[in-house]
Amino acid sequence: MKNTKIILAGDMFPMPCNYALFAAGDTQALFGKKLCDLFASADFRICNLEGCFTDNDTPIEKIGPNIKAPTETVRAVKQLGIDVATLGNTHSMDYGRQGFYDTCQTLADSGIDWLGWGENASSVKKYLTLTDGDRKILLYNVTEQFENAPGADAPGVHLYDEYRVCRELNELKEQCDFLIVLYHGGIEGSHYNSEIMRRRFHRMADNGADLIISQHTHAVGEEERYNNAYLLYGHGNFCFHFRPDVTPLLAEGLVLELDITEDGYTVTPHRILRTEKGCVYDDAQDLTEFYARSRQHDALLKGDQEALAEFESNFGKDCAKWATGLFSLLRGINPADDEKRKSLSPEAFTDYLIKSYSRQQLLGIQLFMRNEEFNEMANQILSDLLKEQDHTEKEL
Fold first, then answer.
1. Which of 60, 117, 126, 303 has the CB geometry, 3.0–4.6 Å to 157, for a possible disulfide?
2. Model confidence over 335-355: pLDDT tens digits?
């Protein structure tokens, strides 16, 4: 049986700064020769498309950006040779039903297959099989819940439910030679995985997954080999220029080269670097920090308390970047806070917000977030309030 090479890229979507290059299909200008050659060498090429291909101008209501691109910008995705796109992600439903239909049609017209979403809750396309000679490789795409849940008559994505996902993986493993899970979730902007993420990945590996990749974080995380499976916590961006400034977090990503043979498989991470309009192959292939984090991750799994403390400390620092947003939302409409924001530095304003809560209040907020029943109750309260506001606005 011949070897099978698969290239797996991270988050990718055209942005205004490179619409023209994507529409022209100019992959050399976007990605450079070495990266294009790497993709061309593969039997299959897969990426996560983080947005909607649509000319519709009616976004859904949400917190955070609504991402779309003109349908013509799919040309560079096709020219790069992408065979399959994962659409179970944060932004695929940003333009609602019309965005769903337009994206499906745009990809179909370009000969690009997809998985991870569907027209309604009962028709979500959870997996897709790639056939190379006698070898069957199965792709399985699942995501955490954002503003992307499907309904009985509404399109949406394949949402993670541990019991069901593990049962499905166990069953699907019997139908293929190699099982790849493309998981959209984790802490955005963090190089470090959480305890919840580690448990989920281990359980999926225990139930048959051979390779599991976490996307969505927009940051490169760690690799782990567990129960004969390869786990990547944080794929990093491929070509996703949502933010114009190039921070260290956004400056790099990984492209995985998966080679499946009769005797097993190998995974080679290739480091890529962001450019003004796209990304290119890193000639130096400096993966020092990636491997250092991976060794630290392996040490904490072996019970190294020093490694665990350092890992959790770094993870906490990454999570702390979200503190301002969290406490600002909890404060509601507060003119005094608006004035403070103008007069204080970002760091001082975050400190001001945090110190405005008592210890008992912080414990209460944590209880609502930690306890599943309280979490569900809070979500129901918020859903009912939003419906009530919609009803009131319609009456007015």
1. 117
2. 999 999 999 999 999 999 999
Half-sphere exposure of 146 (CA within 13 A, CB side): 23
DSSP annotation string for 47-80: EEE-SEE-----PPP-SS---EE-GGGGHHHHHT
Residue 293 parent element (H or E): helix 288-301
User: Does this model's pTM top 0.90?
Assistant: yes
Q: For residues 224, 229, 235 and 239, what is the CA-based torsion angle, rounded to 10 degrees?
A: 150
Taking alpha carbons only, the member of 142, 198, 203, 176 closest to residue 265 is 176
- Structure tokens given for 273: 């670097």
φ, ψ at 122 (rounded to 5°):
-90, -5
CA quadruple 321, 90, 195, 382: dihedral sign: positive
The CA dihedral of 138, 144, 149, 155, to the nearest 10 degrees, is -30
Name the token pair of 128.
Answer: 């897709």
**Residue 214 near residue 223, CB atoms below 8 Å:** no
**In the chain, ranges of CATH 3.60.21.10 domains:** 4-302
pLDDT digits (tens, 9 = 90+) for 219-257: 999 999 999 999 999 999 999 998 877 676 678 999 999
For residues 89 and 79, give the distance between their C-alpha atoms in angstroms, rounded to a whole number: 23
Longest dimension (CA), the chain: 69
Residues ≥6 apart with Cβ < 8 Å to 353:
323, 324, 327, 328, 331, 337
β strands within 112-263, DSSP E:
113-115, 117-118, 127-132, 135-143, 156-157, 178-184, 211-215, 220-226, 229-235, 237-240, 252-261
CB distance 192 to 313 below 8 Å: no
151, pLDDT greater than 80: yes
